[in-house]
Write a structure and sequence with these properties.
The protein has 374 residues and is α/β, with parallel strands linked by helices. It has a six-stranded parallel β-sheet with strand order 3-2-1-9-10-11, sandwiched between helices. Strand 4 and strand 5 form a beta hairpin.
Length: 374
């Protein structure tokens, strides 16, 4: 009668040890607790093929195998985390390059993640289409007006705050960000280069007019008040596209259909003829749309930050966009060591000497600041 008890004790110990090993690594192992009852185990066995049909000693053996696998995964993850710590501790002037992955924990979707924009039918606005077609401008500004309220309320997460703390200690000499959300500045970072611009400013393509996006929101809502929710034909100004019910996009707009009745304001400076200007200046966010080029001065500023650093830390970016990849390529060409913290593959995974850690960004950056000798 003691034998079944001993076997059950082995089983429970093995399971607890496996869970403990995975917990030490911040998770990562897949553990399913057994349900009581033979019928329940049989159903799980049929569905998942992980439950034993013979004896508890067989289950204990399988738990032992899984435990060894979890320990190996935990060891690898822990090793890569400490590699990241040693990388940061060995640098005195880090250049940081961030992408959409650092802002997902603030409620802003990324592009290429499992729940990213490209997996839900996202079609980016092309620069030439925006300039040439009024219908495209109506669609963009209509979607932006509806999405701005939520987007502008997003706040920095622990990843942004950790980088701001690293900058305050002098460890980081500057941040190059692909993001347009200004969360780094809200977190307290001072030296931030917005590689692709920002949605927080609106500019005229014809003259020097510039206005904050918050102020422009008031203009949009005045021209398209909530009470005027339909045009003269009775068609709603906004409607939800089937299959994508108001999805928030990385640049702050939402996935909705915008009616022709939506009004887009023109540049007030150009339309009033100030300074010899005349015409209807096109207003757009100060963002580099797809198909446009990053301004030369931004590239030069990014290159200077890289040249003035002794290490490049990439956080939350796959580097698939060439304007970001070329920064990492410059660092490699200059012999500057590179480390990556990202949740998936990147364009530079095959770079020689690359230090890479795949883990949740906010939690990992917080642990990094806590453990590193900064």
């Amino acid at each position: 009668r003691d034998r079944p008890r001993r076997e059950k004790g082995v089983m429970r110990s093995a399971v607890r040890a496996a869970v403990w090993a995975a917990g030490e690594a911040g998770g990562g192992g897949r553990h399913v607790w057994p349900s009581s009852g033979t019928a329940s185990r049989r159903r799980q066995n049929e569905n998942e093929n992980i439950w034993p049909t013979t004896s508890t000693s067989t289950f204990a053996t399988r738990c032992s195998v899984q435990q060894r696998g979890d320990v190996a995964l935990a060891s690898t993850s822990t090793s890569r985390f400490w590699d990241l710590i040693r990388f940061v501790e060995s640098k005195q002037s880090l250049c940081v390059l961030t992408g959409a992955g650092i802002s997902t924990e603030s409620g802003i979707p990324d592009y290429r993640g499992p729940q990213g924009a490209y997996t839900t039918g996202f079609k980016p606005v092309m620069h030439l289409d925006f300039v040439r077609k009024e219908s495209v401008r109506k669609r963009y500004w209509g979607r932006s007006m509806e999405g701005w309220r939520k987007f502008s309320r997003c706040r920095p997460n622990s990843g942004h705050i950790a980088l701001a703390n690293m900058e305050s200690t002098g460890r980081v000499n500057g941040i190059i960000t692909q993001n347009v959300d200004r969360l780094h500045q809200q977190a307290g970072s001072k030296r931030v280069l917005e590689l692709h611009g920002t949605t927080h400013e609106v500019v005229c393509l014809e003259c020097s007019y510039r206005t904050p996006r918050d102020a422009f929101q008031g203009v949009l809502e005045e021209l398209n008040p909530p009470t005027a929710d339909a045009d003269v034909s009775g068609k709603p100004l906004f409607s939800t596209a089937q299959g994508t019910p108001g999805l928030q996009r990385p640049d702050g707009d939402v996935e909705i259909d915008v009616a022709e009745a939506f009004s887009v304001p023109h540049c007030p400076k150009c339309s009033r003829g100030e300074g010899g200007q005349s015409g209807d200046g096109i207003l757009k966010p100060d963002v580099t749309f797809f198909g446009d080029n990053v301004p030369r001065w931004r590239h030069e500023a990014a290159n200077e930050l890289v040249r003035g650093s002794d290490g490049l830390l990439v956080v939350g970016s796959s580097l698939m966009v060439f304007s970001a990849f070329r920064i990492a390529k410059l660092a490699q060409d200059l012999g500057i060591e590179i480390a990556v913290l990202n949740a998936g593959e990147t364009r530079i995974d095959e770079f020689d000497g690359l230090i890479k850690h795949e883990a949740p960004i906010g939690e990992t950056m917080t642990r990094l600041v806590r453990h590193a000798n900064l």
